[in-house]
Every structure is written in structure tokens, then in C-alpha cells.
Amino acid sequence: MNPIRVAIIGCGKIAEQHASQIRRIAGSQLVGVCDSEKRMADQLAERYQVEGSFDDVQQLLKVARPDVVHITTPPQSHFKLASECLRAGCHVYVEKPFSIDLEEARAMVALAEELGLRITAGHNYQFNPEMVRMRELVRSGSLGGKPVHIESIFSYDLGDASYVNALLGDKKHWVRMLPGKLLQNVISHGIAKIAEFWDSPDYTVTAHGYSSSKLQSAGESEIIDELRVVISDGRQLTAYFTFTTQVAPPVQELRVFGPRGTLIVDGLHRSVIELTGANSAFKSYLNFTLPQFNLARQYMRNMFSNLAAFLRADFHMDIGMRNLFAEFYQSIQSGGAPPISHREIIFTAAVMDEIFRQLDAAGKDVSMLAESRATMSLSGERA
User: Fold this and answer.
1) Are the beta carbons of 152 and 194 closer than 8 angstroms?
2) May I ask the CATH architecture of the domain 126-322+345-377?
3) Is 119 helix (H, G, I), strand (E, B) or coil?
4) Cis peptide before 201 (omega within 30 of 0)
5) Would you report the helix, strand and coil content of the chain in percent, each value rounded to 5?
6) Model confidence at 180: pLDDT above 80
7) Strand locations in the chain, DSSP E?
């Protein structure tokens, strides 16, 4: 089988991670990089010994002739670039967030389907070892049926000065230009974990968000960094999504509740805990000792599994990215199903659209209320 030829458009920080993981995949070859700032492309090409360095997308496609293109530019450009690459006959990997809105997501997916090409989203956390293990347990029947309830919690550290200071200090930062600002750039990781299990076409979304006291004390009121979401199909499945910058220690957790079992996935510590009837089937005082022993045994198993992966040199921070790349390339070469279904991509985009619509409407209501109160204060009577 011929090696799969890969190109990257957008040579910023995330492109470094892409280039590094592409090199880890047997049978893949990074043949070109492209950025509107030629110096950025040249520097990335030099670090990773890439022959082709470009500042024009058409030249990249014509000269490097990639089979698949990774788009790692700000999301405002994803639709145009993905469409251009698809029409050139390339499969496309699009970094998260996949698109600006649902309309663009649908159009990108529809174009890929029309042309018989693969397209996927950069939901790499979905392919970390703990998520792979979770799917194995689901397939083995651990839940005892379809999920009844899902909880996805994603905390974010505002202490990352290199990113957060730039965001807060630059009123024209590209993240501020997104409809959902900081939320849109991050929460797709957490929403995608729910999307995997959501097969109902009908659902409702209720969202509540606000700026934390930490941001408000820094004079920031435009960026929402606390979000609570409820999703329901109105029949048998509900989900809660929480995004927060204020909890300590940080939490990145997925809980999937089934009719006869629950799975708890800890993304920060790469562990999976299985709760079944056996965990609580003990009578009398045994119920306060034996279940804890079972949990301790599972945590030990997770620890030794992680240690073994580390000793095999198969345990690194971006392993989920590598796994997703490898599965995406395999689907291209074999003609099989892509690792992230189009249904999941569309669901994630639709839920995010609705979240931002509700937050925007709530923000306007608050602004109107504040204006009304200011008018009352100045005139002494109700506006």
C-alpha cells in the first residue's frame, strides 16, 4: 500500500502537534505545509524536514499533491479551505471547532459526501486510551443497554498565560471574533463525548452561562467562562454538560449511566471505573468495605495499565491525536467508515449553535435590563 501523503494548512502552535503525530504513524508522509505567513511555513518545514513549504493553498495542492489535508487555521477560515481542498480531491481533517456554525458544518459534510471523500473533526480527546477502553466496555454490555443519562464535565485552566493573557489583552483576538468566543474554541471536546451516544434526531437544549468573578474582577465581561447545559430527547435520554474555569482541582470527566451499569471516565488521569450491581450488592456492613475494595482494585489496574504504556513508550500527551489520525488515514485507505461519524459532527455543531443563540439572547436581555435601570436612576422614574 502506498504511503498516505499529508499536508498541513496553518502553521501555528497546534500545527506543531499535528506534524509530530503524523511522523509517528507508519505509512504516512508529511509532504507540504502552508501558511499565509511564509516564514511560519518555512520554520515548520525546517523543523520536520518537509520538502514543500508554501504561502498559497493552490500551489500546495498542485505541487505537493496531498491525499489528505489537515486544516489548523482559525475556524473562520475552515469552510473556505475545506471546500477548496475537497474540490481538489483531498480528504480533509479539520481542527476543532469544526466550523463557525451549523450551516457551514452541514455544507462541508455534504460536499465531502457528494465527492466521495472523507472529512473529520479534530475531536482527538475522543481517542485517548481511556475513551477507547470505555467503548470496549460499552460493547461488552457493561451498561446493560442504551445509556439513560450522560454527564460531561470539562474544566479549563485560565492560568495558561501564553494563551489567556493574549486573549484577554487583545480585543481583536480571533477567539473573540467567534460567535461563542472562548466557549466555541473549547467546548466541542466535551459536547462530542455526548454526541457519540446521541442517536435521536429530536432534542431540546437549555443553556445558562456567565462570566466568572475572576474574569469580572479583571474587567472582562464579554467572555463567558462558566456554562451549564441540559440536553434531552424528551423520552429516554438526558445529558448534562458543564464547562468551568473555577473548580479545583481540575476535572475532565465523562459519566455514562445505563440500566444496569455506569462508566466513569477520568480524562485527566486516564482511568475508567466500572460500577455495576456487584458494587452495591452487599448486605449489612460489608456494603461499606467491599465496594471500596473493588474500586481500589480498578484504580490499581488503571495505574498499572498506564505504567505499562509508559514503559512501552506509548504514553504521551497527544496520543489521542495520533490515534485519531491513524484511524482517519485507515478509513481513507480501506474505504471504511470514518472514526467520527457525520452525525456526531452535525450534532456537536447544532448543540453549540443553540447554546450560543441562547447565551446571546440572555446577554441582550441583561443589557436591556441594565439600560432600563440606568435610565431609572437618572430620571427617577421607570423607563
Assistant:
1) yes
2) 2-Layer Sandwich (3.30)
3) strand
4) no
5) 50, 20, 35
6) yes
7) 4-9, 28-34, 52-54, 68-71, 91-94, 119-121, 149-155, 204-210, 226-232, 238-244, 252-257, 261-266, 271-276
Q: Domain limits of the chain?
A: 4-121, 126-322+345-377
**Cβ count near 208 (within 10 Å):** 14
Measuring CA to CA, which residue among 309, 320, 321 is closest to residue 19?
A: 321
CA-based end-to-end distance of the chain:
73
Longest dimension (CA), the chain: 79
Cβ-in-10-Å burial (0-12, 13-18, 19+) of 55 comes to middle
Length, in residues, of the chain: 383
CA separation for the pair 344, 348 (Å, rounded): 6
What CATH fold (topology level) applies to the domain 4-121? Rossmann fold (3.40.50)
Residues 299-351 pLDDT 10s: 999 999 999 988 888 888 899 999 999 999 999 999 999 999 999 999 999 99
- Beta bridge partner(s), residue 229: 207, 241
Q: Cell for 213?
A: 468573578
